C-alpha cells in the first residue's frame, strides 16, 4: 500500500557531455526509479526530466523542482545517483541545506544509500564532492589533451568553417567551402567591400554555417580575423604552427587585417565616388588632389589645406588621356620583345645556383626563428618573462616564420617558372599600347598603379616615379611611340650595335619581374 505521507519527486538527467556518455538513458533511469517507488511504497507527485549538464548551477528544471520542494509540494527526491542531482558545489550545497532545514526529508537512490543523519549527509557530501572532482579532473584532462594536440600542430576542436575533421588527419580543407572562404578574403582585401556587402554577396553564393544557418556580419568579421586559414592556430591567446593545409597565404591575411583596420576608422559620410579620389597629390604643396563636378564634367584640384597653392583645375579626361600615354610607354616593339624572350630562355639555365643560395638562406632564417622561439620558452620557464610577454613575443616570431615559410614555398614552386613569368611580362607589354585604348579607365588605373608610385599632378600634368622593371623599361626609352624608336627603325644597321648593347644592359632586370 502506498504511503501518501511520503511524497516524492522523480528527477532524471542526462546531458550530451563526454562524462555522461556511459550514464543510463533517461528511460532506463525512470524504469528503475518507478520500480524503487513501488518497492518503497511511496507516492510520486511529479517527474522531472532534464537534458542539461550539471557542471554549473542554473539548470531550470532542477531549480523548479527545488522551488516546489520549498513550497512543500513534496518532501523527498528519487534519483538514480547523487551525481544526477549535482556536479557543482552550489547545487550540492542547496540539497544539503534543504536536508538541514527539513524541507527534504528523504533522498532515495537505487545505487546509493542516504538518510538525514549526520553520517548520511556526510556520505552525500562526499558523493557530491566526488562528482565535482570527476568533472574537474575530466575537464583538465581534456584541456591537457587539447594543449598537447595544438603543440603537435593539430587543431584540437571541431573544425572551423572551410575545413572538415578527418580521422587521423586532423582538419583538411572542405572542397566545397574552402574556395568560398578564399574568395571572401580576396574580395575584402581589395578594399571595395564592406562587411555587410561581403555578407550579402557570399551568403547568396551559398556560404553558410555548418548547421545550414546563415552567416551574420559578425561571423564574417570573425572569419577574416582567424589565422587558422593561413596554417597558424590561435589557441588560448597563443599562436601555434599547424600541420593542416592553408586555404590562404599569410600575405593575403595581413592585407585583410590592414583593410579592416583602415575601414574601422571613422570616415565622412555621403562622399561621391570618383575614379581618382585619394590617388594623386599636388606636385606643388603635397596636399591631396580632390575631384568635383562642374557643369557635367569632373575636375581635379588641389585641396590647398597646408599652404597657399597656385595649381589650377584640370579636367578628368585630360588626366585619363595622360595615364593611357604613360601605359603605352611601357609597351615593347614586337621584334625587341621577341629578342628578349629568346635571351630569357638562354638565361634560365644559369639561375639554378642562385636559386639554391636563396633557398638555403631562407631555411637558415627559419631555423634561427625556431631557436629564438625555444629560447623564449626557456626564458618563460625560468621566470625571466611573464606569460603575457612570452605570448606576445612568440606570436610575432611565429608570424615571421609563417611568412618565411610561405616565401620559401612560393619560391620553390615558382623557381622553375620564374622565367615563365618574365615571358608573360614581355608578351603582355607587346600589346600594352593597344590595350591602353581598349581597357576601361578603372583597368588602366589599376595597371598604372603597378607601373609606379608617388603619383602627382603639377601644372595639369601627371607625374610619378616608375618602379622595378617598369623603371628600367622607361629609362631605356624603348617604350612604344618615342623618337628613339623611330630613329632606330629608320636606320637599323647603323644603330643595331647600340641597340644590342642597351638591350643587354636592360635584360638584367626581367627575370625578377612580378606577374601582371
Task: Explain what this protein looks like in three dimensions.
The chain has 516 residues and is of the alpha/beta class. Among the domains are: 136 residues, 3-Layer(aba) Sandwich (Rossmann fold); 101 residues, Putative Large Serine Recombinase, Chain B, Domain 2 (Hect, E3 ligase catalytic domain fold), CATH 3.90.1750. 52% of the residues lie in helices and 14% in strands. The strands form 5 sheets. A 4-stranded parallel sheet has the order 2-1-3-4. The chain has a 3-stranded mixed sheet with strand order 9-13-14.
Topology:
Elements: E1 3-13, H1 26-40, E2 42-50, H2 60-70, E3 76-78, H3 82-85, H4 89-101, E4 106-108, H5 118-151, E5 163-166, E6 170-173, H6 178-189, H7 195-204, H8 217-225, E7 232-235, E8 238-241, H9 250-263, E9 281-282, E10 289-294, E11 297-302, E12 314-315, H10 316-328, H11 334-348, H12 352-381, H13 387-414, H14 418-430, H15 432-438, H16 441-451, E13 452-458, E14 461-466, H17 468-475, H18 483-490, H19 492-506
Parallel strand pairs: 1-2, 1-3, 3-4, 9-13
Antiparallel strand pairs: 5-6, 7-8, 10-11, 11-12, 13-14
Helix pairs in contact: 4-5, 6-9, 7-8, 10-15, 10-16, 11-14, 12-13, 18-19
Specify the CATH architecture of the domain at 3-138: 3-Layer(aba) Sandwich
The biggest sheet, with number of strands, parallel, antiparallel or mixed sense and barrel status, is: 4 strands, parallel
Number of strands: 14
The CATH topology label of the domain at 3-138 is: Rossmann fold
Q: Output the radius of gyration.
A: 36 Å
> How would the global form be characterised?
elongated
> What is the CATH domain class of the domain at 3-138?
Alpha Beta
Work out the helix count: 19
Structural class: alpha/beta
Sequence stretches where pLDDT stays below 50 over 5 or more residues: 481-516
Q: What is the rounded distance between the termini?
A: 92 Å
Helix coverage percent: 40-55%
Largest beta sheet: strand ordering: 2-1-3-4
Strand content: 5-15%
| Fourth-tier CATH superfamily name of the domain at 3-138 | Resolvase, N-terminal catalytic domain
- Mean pLDDT, as a whole number? 78
Amino acid at each position: 500500500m502506498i504511503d501518501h505521507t511520503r511524497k516524492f519527486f522523480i528527477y532524471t538527467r542526462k546531458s550530451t557531455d563526454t562524462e555522461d556518455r556511459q550514464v543510463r538513458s533517461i528511460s532506463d533511469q525512470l524504469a528503475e526509479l518507478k520500480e524503487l517507488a513501488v518497492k518503497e511504497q511511496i507516492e510520486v507527485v511529479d517527474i522531472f526530466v532534464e537534458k542539461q549538464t550539471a557542471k554549473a548551477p542554473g539548470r531550470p528544471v532542477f531549480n523548479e523542482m527545488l522551488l516546489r520542494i520549498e513550497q512543500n509540494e513534496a518532501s523527498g527526491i528519487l534519483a538514480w545517483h547523487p551525481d544526477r542531482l549535482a556536479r557543482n558545489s552550489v547545487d550540492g550545497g542547496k540539497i544539503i541545506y534543504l536536508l538541514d532545514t527539513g524541507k527534504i526529508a528523504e533522498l532515495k537512490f537505487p545505487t546509493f544509500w542516504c538518510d538525514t543523519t549526520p553520517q548520511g549527509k556526510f556520505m552525500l557530501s562526499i558523493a557530491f564532492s566526488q562528482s565535482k572532482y570527476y568533472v574537474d579532473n575530466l575537464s583538465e584532462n581534456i584541456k591537457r589533451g587539447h594543449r598537447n594536440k595544438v603543440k603537435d600542430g593539430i587543431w584540437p576542436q571541431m573544425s572551423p568553417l572551410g575545413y572538415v575533421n578527418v580521422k587521423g588527419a586532423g582538419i583538411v580543407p572542405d572542397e566545397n567551402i574552402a574556395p568560398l572562404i578564399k574568395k571572401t578574403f580576396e574580395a575584402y582585401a581589395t578594399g571595395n567591400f564592406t562587411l555587410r556587402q561581403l555578407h550579402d554577396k557570399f551568403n547568396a553564393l551559398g556560404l553558410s554555417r555548418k548547421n545550414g544557418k546563415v552567416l551574420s556580419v559578425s561571423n564574417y568579421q570573425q572569419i577574416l580575423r582567424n589565422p587558422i586559414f593561413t596554417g597558424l592556430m590561435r589557441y588560448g591567446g597563443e599562436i601555434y604552427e599547424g600541420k593542416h593545409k592553408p586555404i590562404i597565404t599569410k600575405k593575403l591575411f595581413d592585407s585583410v587585417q590592414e583593410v579592416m583596420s583602415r575601414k574601422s576608422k571613422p570616415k565622412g559620410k555621403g562622399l561621391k565616388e570618383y575614379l581618382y579620389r585619394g590617388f594623386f597629390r599636388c606636385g606643388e604643396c603635397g596636399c591631396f588632389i580632390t575631384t568635383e563636378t562642374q557643369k557635367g564634367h569632373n575636375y581635379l584640384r588641389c585641396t590647398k589645406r597646408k599652404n597657399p597653392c597656385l595649381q589650377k583645375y584640370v579636367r578628368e579626361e585630360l588626366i585619363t588621356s595622360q595615364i593611357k600615354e604613360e601605359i603605352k610607354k611601357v609597351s615593347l616593339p614586337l621584334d625587341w620583345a621577341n629578342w628578349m624572350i629568346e635571351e630569357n630562355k638562354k638565361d634560365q639555365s644559369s639561375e639554378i645556383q642562385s636559386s639554391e643560395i636563396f633557398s638555403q638562406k631562407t631555411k637558415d632564417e627559419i631555423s634561427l626563428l625556431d631557436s629564438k622561439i625555444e629560447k623564449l620558452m626557456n626564458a618563460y620557464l625560468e621566470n625571466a618573462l611573464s606569460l603575457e610577454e612570452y605570448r606576445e613575443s612568440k606570436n610575432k616570431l611565429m608570424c615571421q616564420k609563417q611568412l618565411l615559410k610561405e616565401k620559401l614555398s612560393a619560391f620553390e614552386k615558382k623557381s622553375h617558372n620564374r622565367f615563365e613569368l618574365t615571358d608573360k611580362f614581355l608578351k603582355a607589354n607587346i600589346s600594352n599600347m593597344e590595350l591602353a585604348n581598349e581597357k576601361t579607365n578603372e583597368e588602366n588605373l589599376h595597371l598604372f598603379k603597378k607601373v609606379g608610385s608617388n603619383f602627382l599632378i603639377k601644372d595639369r600634368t601627371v607625374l610619378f616615379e616608375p618602379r622595378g622593371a617598369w623603371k628600367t623599361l622607361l629609362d631605356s626609352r624603348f617604350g612604344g611611340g618615342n623618337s628613339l624608336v623611330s630613329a632606330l627603325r629608320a636606320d637599323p644597321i647603323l644603330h643595331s650595335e647600340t641597340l644590342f648593347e642597351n638591350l643587354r644592359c636592360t635584360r638584367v632586370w626581367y627575370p625578377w619581374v612580378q606577374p601582371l
